[in-house]
Amino acid sequence: MKALRADTVSKLRKALPELEKEVKRPSNFEDFYSYSFCYCLTALPLTSSNLLLQRRNKRV
Questions:
Q1: CA dist., res. 60 & res. 45, Å (int)
Q2: Tens-digit pLDDT profile for residues 17-53
Q3: What was the pLDDT predicted at 10?
């Protein structure tokens, strides 16, 4: 957020079109995709385990 100089929601909305252009550039897309994929691999197990714990606690 600091790098974008977007300290408000309206500034962030104005920055989104430029961010989309950056992601769509072939040179940046691979890096973005790799980061997103790795993030999901680490975040998904946490989310899944939280869901399982919630279900188990509801049964008790």
A1: 23
A2: 998 998 889 989 999 889 888 887 776 665 666 666 6
A3: 92
Place of tokens 């899944």: 48
- Dmax over CA atoms of the chain, in Å, equals 51
Closest CA to 17 of 6, 27, 30, 26: 6
Cα 6 to Cα 13, 22, 30, 40, 53: the distances in Å are 9, 16, 25, 25, 37
Token reading at 7 = 């300290």
Residues 6 or more apart whose Cβ sits within 8 Å of residue 22? 28
